[in-house]
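User: Predict the complex with inosinic acid.
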Amino acid sequence: MAIKTQRANRNNAPIPSGTERVKVLLTHAKIQKRIREMAKLIRKDFPNEPLLLVGVLKGAVLFLADLARQITGEVTFDFIAVSSYGKDSRSSGQVKLNKDLDSSIEGKTVIVVEDILDTGLTLRYLLRILQQRKPKNLRVAVLLDKVERRLTDVTADYVGFAIPNEFVVGYGLDYAERYRNLPDVRILSLPGGNH
Ligand code: IMP
Ligand code: MG
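Assistant: Here is the predicted structure with inosinic acid placed in the model:
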């Protein structure tokens, strides 16, 4: 079924027509406040270490950009891209590496930066391959955590917000590549149910 394309409005006013609706869950201000706290926690855990932020493309780009600016001291970043495949694209558990890091992480303090922890299968895969490369420390920062959906015992060291089991978009998160540019996180509803 084709989904009508429309521009999402920025002020949470109802979208007058069309098939998709969004409702603000986390405002931009609330996200920024939490990111400042997360940045402090990360730096407190590693007061004197250069930190390498590894962003998971594409969803984590906005989060990484804001987080990096709030962490004091030496910070570098690199990016990795993965995709899930199989029947249910979001929870098949089969993960493919689409773009590897540019540089070695051996001996480095690495913080994996992810948009959302859902089933945990993507992160489990990523941690497995990154651990093999012998970083000095390997930690995970996620903006959102859908605790209810977890299928593995993977956990994040730094969590922005635990959220309910709803499909969310904005602030990097997409639905069919759209909505990533919204400044806040919104719940997306499609007529006839989500997904
Ligand atoms: P996991 O492997 O099930 O933990 O899924 C992680 C990936 O699924 C995330 O990096 C997102 O790309 C995507 N994802 C999971 N839940 C949502 C959502 O509510 N909105 C948008 N993308 C999501
Ligand atoms: Mg993602």
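The pocket of inosinic acid (ligand 1) is lined by residues 59, 90-91, 114-123, 167-169, 173 (CB under 6 Å).
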